[in-house]
């Protein structure tokens, strides 16, 4: 773990903020309250400390994505009232982005049910792009059911382009099922992005337009 590399294995020697985020990562509500009380030297209150304590650009709600345990989300969102759409200051990932990166569907569902923006972007990257790139079929399926934009473009293209290039046939299939015209749009998108790459077309076009190539790698 990063904190062990930075501070060693003896957690008692870690900065309290690091121990606080580890507790959030582990879903330990009792421990984050304990550390928040320890940090509250000016008497602002535990809730304020839980909300405002950060370490390496992340707060407790970002760190919770690592473990994806619902009790910590319920505490932070429903009791502490933390902002479900606030990005971290390290990489500008929101709480739901962190949950997606770790593949925690229940956490993703919880955050969207409690106000997280389905259509948020990190630059041009959507939540659907993130789920596709990591190969999380169930999260992709869930986001599509919620109305995620299957045509959204990032610097690397549409979610279907990502799934095709990474050879995730089940994700390609469900993306196609959600929009019958996606394959045509994919062709147009690729033409605009890589008009001069003959090798690109030689390698990829057979995969796109052959049922065996697309679904039977």
From TrEMBL:
Chain positions of ANK repeats: 91-123, 123-155
Superkingdom of the source species: Eukaryota
UniProt entry keywords in alphabetical sequence: ANK repeat
Residue runs in coiled coils: none
Protein name: Uncharacterized protein
């Amino acid at each position: 773990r990063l904190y062990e590399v930075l501070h060693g294995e003896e957690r008692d020697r870690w900065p309290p903020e690091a121990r606080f985020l580890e507790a959030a990562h582990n879903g330990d509500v009792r421990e984050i309250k304990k550390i928040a009380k320890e940090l509250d030297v000016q008497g602002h209150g535990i809730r304020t400390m839980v909300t405002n304590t950060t370490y390496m650009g992340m707060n407790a709600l970002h760190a919770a994505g690592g473990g994806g345990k619902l009790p910590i989300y319920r505490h932070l969102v429903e009791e502490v009232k933390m902002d479900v759409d606030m990005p971290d200051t390290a990489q500008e990932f929101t709480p739901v982005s962190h949950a997606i990166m770790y593949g925690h569907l229940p956490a993703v569902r919880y955050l969207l049910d409690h106000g997280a923006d389905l259509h948020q972007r990190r630059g041009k990257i959507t939540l659907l792009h993130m789920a596709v790139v990591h190969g999380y079929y169930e999260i992709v399926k869930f986001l599509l059911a919620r109305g995620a934009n299957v045509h959204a473009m990032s610097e690397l293209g549409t979610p279907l382009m990502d799934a095709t290039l990474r050879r995730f046939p089940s994700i390609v299939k469900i993306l196609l099922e959600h929009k019958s015209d996606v394959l045509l749009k994919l062709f147009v998108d690729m033409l605009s992005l890589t008009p001069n790459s003959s090798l690109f077309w030689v390698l990829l076009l057979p995969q796109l337009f052959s049922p065996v190539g697309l679904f039977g790698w």
